[in-house]
């Protein structure tokens, strides 16, 4: 192992966080990630550990297949995170510029974790392989990825977890490019959750992120037992017959004729034994406005109380 990689390796296994190592060694995100790949290429099994406060660490691991559930650590049973869906970077009605307001909200409320529930990118392909109308500076997936890396907000205390939706999947299927992998390999504040469905555990809270993929079969979200947050619909919706299914609003300005809601995001606040789900709408030139507020008792989705 070359000397600089050995120095970084020693810092990591001695408990220094990703940001602390980058600062101590004066590394950019890309330089840090390149060195991680070099260390892994020598056979070392490094696993990234995430915390709800936005920090992350690497530790040695002997587990070869430990990726079904993402475990995020929290030092407290009380924590919060934000859910964003359908940003559609590259579309003429994208929501990228609205992320600045989401970041301001997160910082004002001491929130360090953001989950994206599909269609972070618009891509250029439909499910039939035809091309979408996109911005002039986003007419290729490479340009959309570049904008995501360079124009998406950055804060060393905020971590973003990205689930791939159908638009990213079309890019993989027709363009043979994994845009989530490109994000993850260029910025340390991005982590890919794979495609379509991801199960998450944070202390006593278990939940699922789901985004429909037209080209592959997935579990039916209505058959899942966990609290499930669903992207793809571009409309926030709580079904009282199935209260554990929460459909998320889009942050873009893309509106479906039969499914209209203002752009927004969702806040989840856990104060054990309660889980509060709050939806915020973003109107032009205004701060986020609370549009619904509900909570689950004892982290049990069957016991839903609506506090609208």
Distinctive features:
Purple Acid Phosphatase, chain A, domain 2, eight-stranded mixed sheet, 7 helices, Arc Repressor Mutant, subunit A, globular, disordered C terminus, alpha/beta, 308 residues
Question: How is the CATH topology of the largest domain named?
Answer: Purple Acid Phosphatase, chain A, domain 2
CATH architecture of the largest domain: 4-Layer Sandwich
Largest β sheet strand count, sense and barrel closure: 8 strands, mixed
Shape: globular
**How much helix is in the residues?**
10-25%
Count helical runs.
7
Structural class: alpha/beta
CATH superfamily of the largest domain: Metallo-dependent phosphatases
Describe the structure.
The chain has 2 domains: 3-65, Arc Repressor Mutant, subunit A (Orthogonal Bundle), CATH 1.10.10.10; 76-306, Purple Acid Phosphatase, chain A, domain 2, CATH 3.60.21.10. The protein has 7 helices and 16 strands. It has helices spanning 3-13, 18-25, 29-41, 99-108, 141-151, 166-175, 179-184; strands spanning 46-51, 56-60, 69-73, 78-84, 113-117, 159-164, 190-195, 197-202, 205-210, 227-230, 237-238, 245-247, 264-271, 274-281, 289-297, 304-306. An 8-stranded mixed beta sheet has the order 2-1-3-8-9-10-12-11, with no helix packed on it. The relative contact order is 0.13. The model is unreliable at 298-308 (pLDDT under 50).
